[in-house]
Design goal:
0% strand
């Protein structure tokens, strides 16, 4: 498999950004962004889709930590 061309990369990133914006608008309700998700998956290599999905989850987690801070889980059964 050859590396994506500059045009293919731009198309992939654009599809990713449109999908992420839709998810942000709809509170991560994937059913409302299904067409954009399919476009994202069709324009990006599969490994990139996996990477971008993990990246989005990480960025959401990071944003939550920055706004709410870290709250360790309650210790259960520790002696």
């Amino acid at each position: 498999m050859s590396a994506p061309t500059m045009e293919e990369r731009k198309a992939c990133w654009g599809a990713r950004d449109e999908f992420w914006q839709c998810m942000d608008r709809h509170g991560d309700d994937a059913s409302k962004c299904e067409k954009l998700r399919l476009s994202f998956e069709s324009r990006c290599p599969q490994q990139w889709v996996k990477h971008f999905d993990k990246r989005r989850d990480f960025l959401k987690y990071k944003r939550k930590l920055e706004t709410e801070g870290y709250h360790p889980p309650e210790a259960t059964g520790k002696s």
